[in-house]
Amino acid sequence: MITRQATTTLWRPTGPQELDLVRESGWRAWPPRLPEQPIFYPVLNEDYAIRIARDWNVKYDGAGFVTRFEVDSEFLRRYPVRQAGGRTILELWVPAEELDEFNAHIVGGIQLVHEFR
């Protein structure tokens, strides 16, 4: 019998530069954070990711993208869900120094699901 690994779907709104680095990874990993970015923030619902990509990334970067990816649910238990605003504004806060380990627990690839210009 094959046991399927439980995963959690996460979403990531992103700008063009970060998306280029994800593409360069073969759609397998998030790039290291910049020094002024101590936390990696994946979000827990598509609507929130769309709002950030459309309303924030387009304004500041000229384009915004939404990605979807699966992460091992057991591994994610170390990161409590943070409510960053309204009841549907939910995200995880992954310290930058843990991003390589986080990337190692992505199941499958990172998928581009929305684009805004």
Automatic annotation (TrEMBL):
Protein name: Crystallin
Lineage: Bacteria, Bacillati, Actinomycetota, Actinomycetes, Kitasatosporales
Organism from which the protein derives: Streptomyces pulveraceus
Domain of life: Bacteria
